[in-house]
């Protein structure tokens, strides 16, 4: 049983019921003394310490009293006023204020009370003296060259450890090697003397670190005599000869030696041999391998086996050998042990009349001696009749209360002493429960629970645990009552919670206490953060989701640790750590944030933890210690030490250079090497003052460069290369331009760079040469487009570059001289045709074939007979081909096209124009589609015909359907309008207040075109103001107005009439036929004679109506269609058309126009406009025909059109004629196609290039 630990123990016993408590009191329990603190076995009085405490603390009841012995004699510290004594303690302090030698000795402390005495271990107080070398005069050591000698140190004794150094007067270490070495005793051994060993300042220094002292021995002098000898067994060294000899050992002496060590100490053996050549030393363990932990030092002369144990014991051998023989020494190691407890005596509480056995057993080598004491005195000094001693055992028969004492067992051998105090208490005592009443215990479900019931009694008590006032004790495999009275429950369950009672009873009585057990839910981390790799400077988030018992809401803690150290969370502005809802946030992550982060969830009863590693990624550090070596004329070796890759492997190193002549300060990349290399040999250029630096690259990015090297300038050399990218061009027919990429300044390799240009025709053998300093050369007077061979070689003052390669090129190009023949057109559909031709012979190309170009233009629409030049378009087909596809044509039109070839110089002449027609297509979308009126059952519509019908209109398809705001729509109702002239319609029989969707398409015989749509909603009631039937009272009789006429300008129209009859009101409405919106004037009186409509668009067709009402319907007094002019010329229009003289005039004009057209036709057949065009295509001027590569494959329109003025007749059918077609009006543009002729270009409008030729002008003016 464990004795009471406190010095004075008062146990309050709370009697809950008389049946469960035999006594209720508070009484002291006596206790034997026990040593609780003491000084170490050796206490060294270091001179720099202020004081030296001699500690002795003990506990017991009654309070122990202390006394000391020194060297076996009584010693009372209180009698010495220099010693400081502590109250209620056995400790005294020796101050460092004088001569400490008188306190040197062996001390022991005794702590006693009336029950017995406890003693401390022996404490040796050591007062070290200051070690000193003796003052002496040393004779020089004189030795012949080749002979061995030893310089003895003989260090003074002092507090270990001792450190020996051999140095000169100037504190330079004596160099040690296989020939010269220091032994364990501090002596300096020379296996053979050489001339350089002669010196006068060999000094031995002894250092004692624990007392901070270094002492020096008197300097020693060595004189080595040299002799010249000639013999068969001598070794020549300079002019002298050393006699070779077999080894012998300088230390240890003799053939064998024996060493005894305490287990755990370090073994150190040495073998230092003399001889010449210098002997080599080997170590073996006889019959075994050397211990794995053995290590050799001092050039193999010293073997160290750290922390020896019994297995290291045995026989060893060292062998020193050279070519002439060997010397050996045998070592025997015996490993001994200090005393170690086998059975340490234990304190006991025995009852009166019992037998008490005290056992004390110790092991060790040599076997320890056991010495018994009682209360600090030898057993012989305190005899007892009932006490028997059997070597390591004491038996107390029929023990009495007076047998209570402190028994000391001391086990010692030559390596140490063990002391143990055993408190033997003989008494009878009813159970005293030391555990407090009503303790609350909390356990975690599934984990163990421990409830304590510490009892002090004699004889020992029987402990019984019960639950919830049950008379039965708790039993089962999950319940265990320990010897100290504690109840342990394994795998706690929820139903284990409740009230428990501990009952202790013996022959003297009984006692009980209650305890409550609460079973809590376990604390679990249900979602832990996985390992993270994050870039430096970013923000890291580490999450930790925890479940725990809610009763611990106020006591639950979530902590974060980094590398097992708690993270200090301070919420200041500079803090980078924040925790919110279990998430640890680290702002601006740095390298120092890398590590293992642990989330610790803790309640008062349990905890859970989860860890994750945060790895910080960054670009590599700069490489260090970049050095240059192996300097050569065209290379140098660079070597460096890579920097930290910051957790992302280095993938490559970038070597950069900077030169000081052309671009100083500008670093350029020179070479890249793999990331597993740390050296490179880059090729260099001559005569460049280089400086190098290296940077590393990993997956994160490129790191900073390291420090640059010193400058290195290779000598000048001939160029290593010749110019690249040689281009041969011919801008003019009789010249050849040669251009090349010049060498970079650092590629010059030296001063005086120039280029030798060599060229010849391919069919010639001799080369023509020129030397230039620029990077271009022009060869003049060359034939047109002839192949040449060219080579360019660099040279400087050091010589020529390598042999250049030969490049082939052609002299200047000229325009092609022939046009493609057999041009044919195959119409694919209304908008696409396929054009074919015969290729131009290569002799007529006069250059590299660029391809073929097709130019086409629209002559007229086949809807009417009016001719009008359309915009010219052009399409280029690169390469050697004989066909192409032309897209984007307008259906139902007449076109003309020509084909020409082109080269790098420009276009060749065009082929003879070919005219073709495209078939009908579907019309374009109607530009205008409007709802003009919506009534209850009707909707009125107005539209304009398509601007391009792409054929002959056959009518319109009008469709409508109900689309009220529901998912379902009504059926599509078609209305076929067969009259193409119809531009308005009224739908009838519609639903009132309904939404309709209206669709309109224009149609030809090919089909109907795209749809235009409109939406409208019918009304609830028919609006009178919008009724198509005007009131009868507002009817204007047609006899009121007569003789209507119109005068039309470019932005106005003047409508005039002759009034008659009574005066009434009417209105004038006009509509832009392109827009389809009517505009109505204010009310006009028939007394007026005209009305001006202004704000009209020039060149636009309008419909004009005179109506009797302010709304539109089918009743009108007068209706006409007018067209505004483009040139500001007005035309008289209207009633004049009925005059006879005007009709005659128009007939005369028509006849004259017919005569002019016939004359133009005859003139063209005799070489008119088209012949001029052909002549121009055969001899194009450079400006108009020139082209470059950038104009290939472009599609273009000509948007410059002739200005047209029209003189409107009264019948609106006779207009000024358009000019005839002329090829002169068309230039050349490009559009690209694929090999099969499919279109890949874009349409693009371009201004037409005018050709200001006097010949062309004359031709144009001839028909006029």
From TrEMBL:
Which residue ranges does the record annotate as region Disordered?
A: 699-729, 1021-1040, 1175-1227
Q: Which reaction does it catalyse?
A: O-phospho-L-tyrosyl-[protein] + H2O = L-tyrosyl-[protein] + phosphate
Which keywords are on file for this protein? Cell adhesion, Cell membrane, Disulfide bond, Extracellular matrix, Glycoprotein, Hydrolase, Immunoglobulin domain, Membrane, Protein phosphatase, Receptor, Repeat, Secreted, Signal, Transmembrane, Transmembrane helix
GO BP field:
axon guidance; brain development
Q: How does it assemble?
A: May interact with L1CAM. May interact with ITGB1/ITGA1 heterodimer and ITGB1/ITGA2 heterodimer as well as with ANK3.
Superkingdom per UniProt: Eukaryota
Primary subcellular site in the record, as a coarse category: membrane
Q: What is the residue range of the signal peptide feature?
A: 1-21
Question: Is Thylakoid one of the keywords UniProt gives this record?
Answer: no
Species name:
Cyclopterus lumpus (Lumpsucker)
For this protein, the Enzyme Commission number is: 3.1.3.48
Protein name (record): Neural cell adhesion molecule L1-like protein
**InterPro entries noted in UniProt:** FN3_dom, FN3_sf, Ig-like_dom, Ig-like_dom_sf, Ig-like_fold, Ig_I-set, Ig_sub, Ig_sub2
**CDD domains membership:** FN3
């Amino acid at each position: 049983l464990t004795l009471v630990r406190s010095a004075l123990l008062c146990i309050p016993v709370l009697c809950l019921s008389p049946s469960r408590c035999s006594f209720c009191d508070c009484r002291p329990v006596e206790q034997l003394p026990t040593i609780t603190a003491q000084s170490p076995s050796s206490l060294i009085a270091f001179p720099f310490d202020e004081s030296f405490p001699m500690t002795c603390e003990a506990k017991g009841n009654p309070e122990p009293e202390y006394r000391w012995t020194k060297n076996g004699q009584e010693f009372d510290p209180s009698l010495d006023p220099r010693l400081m004594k502590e109250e209620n303690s056995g400790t005294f302090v020796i101050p460092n204020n004088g001569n400490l030698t008188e306190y040197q000795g062996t001390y022991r402390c005794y702590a006693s009370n009336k029950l017995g005495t406890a003693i401390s271990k022996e404490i040796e107080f050591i007062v070290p003296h200051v070690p000193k070398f003796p003052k002496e005069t040393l004779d020089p050591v004189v030795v012949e060259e080749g002979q061995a000698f030893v310089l003895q140190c003989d260090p003074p004794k002092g507090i270990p450890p001792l450190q020996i150094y051999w140095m000169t007067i100037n504190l330079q270490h004596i160099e040690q090697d296989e020939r010269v070495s220091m032994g364990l005793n501090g002596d300096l051994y020379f296996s053979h003397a050489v001339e350089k060993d002669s010196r006068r300042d060999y000094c031995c220094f002894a250092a004692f670190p624990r007392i901070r002292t270094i002492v020096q021995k008197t300097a020693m002098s060595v004189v080595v005599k040299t002799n010249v000898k000639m013999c068969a067994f001598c070794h020549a060294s300079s002019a002298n000869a050393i006699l070779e000899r077999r080894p012998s050992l300088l230390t240890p002496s003799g053939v064998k030696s024996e060493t005894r060590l305490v287990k755990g100490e370090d073994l150190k053996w040495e073998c230092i041999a003399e001889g010449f050549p210098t002997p080599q030393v080997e170590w073996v363990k006889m019959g075994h391998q050397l211990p794995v932990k053995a290590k050799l030092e001092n050039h193999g002369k010293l073997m160290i086996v750290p922390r020896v144990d019994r297995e290291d014991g045995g026989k060893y051998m060292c062998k020193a050998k050279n070519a002439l023989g060997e010397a050996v020494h045998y070592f025997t190691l015996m490993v001994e042990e200090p005393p170690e407890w086998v059975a340490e005596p234990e304190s006991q509480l025995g009852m009166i009349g019992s037998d008490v056995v005290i056992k004390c057993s110790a092991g060790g080598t040599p076997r320890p001696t056991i010495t018994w004491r009682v209360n600090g005195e030898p057993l012989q000094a305190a005899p007892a009749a009932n006490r028997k001693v059997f070597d390591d055992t004491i038996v107390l028969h029929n023990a009495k209360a007076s047998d209570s004492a402190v028994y000391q067992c001391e086990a010692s051998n030559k390596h140490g002493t063990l002391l143990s105090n055993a408190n033997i208490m003989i008494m009878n005592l009813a159970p005293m429960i030391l555990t407090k009443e009503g303790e609350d215990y909390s356990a975690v479900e599934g984990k163990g629970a421990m409830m304590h019931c510490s009892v002090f009694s004699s004889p020992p008590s029987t402990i019984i645990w019960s639950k919830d006032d049950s008379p039965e004790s708790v039993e089962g495999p999950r319940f265990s009552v320990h010897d100290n009275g504690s109840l342990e429950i394994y795998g706690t369950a929820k139903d284990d919670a409740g009230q428990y009672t501990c009952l202790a009873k013996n022959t003297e009585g009984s006692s009980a206490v209650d305890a409550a057990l609460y079973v809590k839910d376990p604390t679990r981390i249900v979602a832990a953060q996985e390992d993270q790799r994050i870039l430096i400077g970013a923000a890291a988030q580490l999450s930790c989701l925890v479940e725990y018992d809610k009763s611990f809401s106020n006591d639950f803690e979530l902590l974060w640790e980094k590398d097992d150290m708690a993270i200090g969370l301070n919420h200041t502005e500079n803090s980078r750590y924040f925790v919110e809802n279990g998430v640890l946030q680290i702002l601006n992550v740095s390298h120092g944030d890398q590590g293992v982060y642990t989330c610790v969830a803790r309640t008062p009863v349990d905890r859970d933890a989860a860890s994750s590693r945060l790895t910080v990624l960054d670009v590599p550090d700069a490489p260090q210690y970049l050095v240059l070596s192996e300097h050569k004329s065209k290379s140098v070796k660079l070597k460096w030490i890579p920097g930290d890759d910051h957790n992302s492997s280095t993938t490559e190193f970038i070597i950069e250079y900077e030169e000081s002549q052309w671009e100083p300060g500008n670093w350029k990349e020179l070479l890249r090497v793999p990331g597993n290399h740390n050296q490179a040999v880059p090729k260099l250029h001559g005569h460049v003052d280089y400086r190098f630096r290296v940077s590393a690259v990993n997956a994160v990015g490129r790191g900073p460069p390291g420090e640059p090297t010193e400058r290195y300038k290779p000598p000048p050399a001939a160029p290593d290369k010749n110019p690249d990218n040689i281009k041969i061009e011919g801008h003019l027919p009789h010249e050849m331009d040669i251009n090349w990429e010049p060498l970079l300044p650092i590629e010059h390799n030296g001063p005086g760079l120039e280029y030798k240009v060599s060229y010849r025709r391919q069919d010639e053998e001799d080369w023509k040469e020129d030397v230039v300093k620029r990077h271009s050369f022009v060869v003049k007077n060359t034939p047109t487009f002839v192949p040449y061979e060219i080579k360019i070689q660099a040279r400087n003052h050091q010589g020529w570059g390598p042999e250049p390669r030969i490049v082939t090129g052609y002299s200047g190009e000229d325009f092609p001289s022939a046009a493609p023949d057999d041009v044919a057109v195959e119409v694919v559909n209304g908008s696409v045709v396929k054009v074919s031709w015969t290729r131009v012979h290569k002799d007529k190309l006069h250059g590299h074939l660029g391809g073929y170009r097709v130019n086409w233009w629209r002559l007229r629409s086949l809807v009417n007979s009016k001719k009008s030049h359309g915009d010219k378009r052009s399409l280029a087909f690169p390469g050697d081909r004989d066909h192409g596809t032309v897209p984007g044509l307008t259906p139902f039109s007449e076109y003309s096209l020509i084909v020409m070839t082109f080269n790098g110089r420009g276009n060749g002449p065009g082929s003879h124009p070919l005219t073709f027609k495209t078939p009908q297509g579907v019309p374009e979308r109607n530009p205008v589609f409007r709802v003009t009126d919506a009534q209850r059952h009707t909707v009125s519509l107005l539209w304009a015909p398509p601007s391009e019908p792409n054929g002959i209109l056959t009518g319109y398809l009008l469709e409508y359907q109900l689309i009220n705001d529901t998912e379902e729509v009504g059926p599509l109702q078609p209305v076929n309008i067969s009259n193409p002239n119809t531009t308005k319609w009224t739908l009838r029989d519609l639903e009132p207040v309904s939404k309709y969707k209206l669709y309109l398409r224009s149609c030809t015989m090919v089909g109907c075109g795209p749809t235009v749509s409109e939406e409208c909603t019918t009304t609830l009631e028919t609006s009178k103001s919008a009724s198509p039937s005007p009131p009868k009272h507002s009817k204007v009789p047609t006899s009121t107005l007569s003789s209507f006429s119109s005068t039309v300008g470019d932005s106005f129209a003047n409508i005039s009439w002759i009034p008659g009859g009574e005066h009434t009101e009417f209105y004038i409405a006009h509509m832009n036929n392109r827009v389809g919106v009517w505009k109505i004037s204010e009310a006009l009186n028939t007394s007026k004679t005209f009305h001006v409509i202004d704000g009209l668009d020039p060149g636009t067709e309008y419909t004009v109506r005179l109506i009797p009402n302010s709304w539109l319907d089918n009743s009108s007094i007068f209706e006409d269609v007018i067209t505004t002019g483009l040139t500001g010329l007005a035309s008289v229009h209207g009633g004049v058309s009925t005059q006879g003289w005007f009709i005659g005039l128009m007939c005369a004009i028509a006849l004259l126009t017919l005569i002019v057209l016939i004359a133009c036709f005859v003139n063209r057949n005799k070489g008119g406009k088209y012949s001029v065009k052909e002549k121009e295509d055969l001899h194009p001027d450079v400006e108009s025909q020139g082209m470059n590569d950038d104009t290939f494959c472009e599609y273009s329109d000509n948007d410059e059109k002739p200005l047209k003025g029209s003189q409107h007749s009264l019948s609106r059918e006779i207009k000024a004629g358009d000019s005839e077609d002329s090829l002169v009006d068309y230039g050349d543009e490009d559009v690209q196609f694929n090999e099969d002729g499919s279109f890949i270009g874009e349409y693009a409008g371009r201004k037409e290039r005018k050709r200001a030729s006097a010949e062309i002008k004359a031709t144009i003016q001839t028909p006029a």
